[in-house]
Amino acid sequence: MKAIVNYENGPEKVQYMDVEMPVPAEGQVRIKVAYCGICGTDLHIYAGDGGYPTKPPVTLGHELSGIVEAVSEGADPAWIGKKVVSETYYHTCGRCMYCRTGHGNLCPEKKSIGSAVNGAMADYVVVPEKNLHLIPEGISLREAAMTEPLACCVQGVLEFGDMIPGDRVLITGPGAIGLMCLQVAVSAGAVVIVAGTAVDKERLELAKKLGAAETVYSDQPDAKEKIGMLCGPFGPDVVLDCSGAGPAIRMGLEVIRKGGRYVQVGLTGRPVELDMNLITLKELSVMGTYAQKPQWWEKALDLVQRGEVKLEPLISDVYPLKEWKKAFDGYQQKTGFKYLLQAAADSE
Ligand SMILES: [Zn+2]
Ligand SMILES: [Zn+2]
Fold first, then answer.
1. Residues around ligand 2, an ion, CB closer than 5 A
2. Ligand lying closest to the C-alpha of residue 98
């Protein structure tokens, strides 16, 4: 079968190549991949910048949808033929303090598909049966491939943002993650402002269509004033940074109200200079959110099924697996939102 493989560490060590068909071990299933999304971490792996560690040779891809095609001993044969998405943890220890308190995303022994073990930018992928979630009626395989990033957003918004109806929320960074967080926050009853820069014009327009009460250009001199007008004199109750960009993070900490909740969703790539006094003097709760816990997958699928989160408008383009390079380049140019690779169409 074909796969997109990170064959050794270093820049641009990624190739479309033939690999062995994976065989499910006990308790595992084999999924015929339909779509696999490209994530920022895949770009870090391709750039070989050390921003995301891998164990090459390894097939990339962790945002998948597909159809269960084979099950091994110990896995339920009823899964065969079912449309599914899969959580990304191939292995967690199950014994450590994190695993035992339901925080497998923080397990030191966590091994994820697409970085430590073979992932889903391939015709087939093998995952543990316990990672599967059935795709509910009414959600397409295209949309379902975005369940993983959406589950990250649901955790960031609902668990750490801890929103209640009427909360004023500022989201900085209107990429796919920002616009998913926007929709989850709106579904929770929040009034949401989305901030971007001049390059985000098209993204901010889409933010309006997806429920943003207002959009602002954070690089314009009147940005803070505009946010103040929309959030009242004290500023937003919650800020979620989905950009990972220093200026956006600094602005978020400046405008957030005293006692507000600040959630860092985006990765910065490199250290960012901040005025820590803002955290002290404003008594801010500052939190990070990383990957997601299983309960947020069901919530993510439910929000999509009920139409509260729309994923189709976030798909910029779909490329066959062998044209992965075009899709990676498109993502890198930061023009669109989400790029998907279509595996099933590639079985020549
Ligand atoms: Zn991802
Ligand atoms: Zn563990």
1. 92-93, 96, 99, 107
2. 2
Residue 284, in any domain of the structure: yes
Point out which residues pair with 64 in neighbouring strands. 36
Q: Are residues 155 and 131 in the same domain?
A: no
Q: Containing H/E element for 98?
A: helix 97-100
The angle at the Cα of 251, spanning 245 to 252, to the nearest 5 degrees, equals 90
Count the Cβ atoms, other than its own, within 10 Å of residue 51: 14
Mean pLDDT of residues grouped by 10 in the chain (348 residues)? 96 96 97 96 88 90 98 97 96 95 93 96 97 97 98 97 95 97 98 96 96 95 89 95 96 97 92 97 97 94 98 96 93 84 66
* Ligand of minimum distance to the alpha carbon of 89: 2
Q: What are the angstrom distances between the C-alpha of 219 and each of 182, 192, 249?
A: 20, 19, 12
Domain region containing 332: 2-146+311-346
Both 97 and 190 in one domain: the answer is: no
Predicted local distance difference test score (pLDDT) of residue 87: 96
How far, in Å, is the centroid of ligand 2 from the Cα of 202? 42
Q: Which ligand is nearest to the CA of 291?
A: 1
Q: Which ligand is nearest to the CA of 151?
A: 1
Ligand 1 mean position, distance from CA 220 (Å):
31
Q: Within 13 Å of residue 53, how many CA atoms lie on the same side as its CB?
A: 4
- Cβ 240 vs Cβ 181: under 8 Å: yes
Note the pLDDT of residue 330: 84
Does a structural domain hold residue 303? no
- pLDDT score of 347: 43
* Strand pairing class (124-128; 111-112): unpaired
Q: Which ligand is nearest to the CA of 88?
A: 1
Q: Quote the CA–CA distance of 87 and 11 in Å, as a whole number.
A: 28
Structure tokens at 140: 């397409």
Distance from residue 112's CA to the centre of ligand 2 (Å): 13
66 Cα–ligand 1 center, Å: 17
At residue 44, the pLDDT reads 87
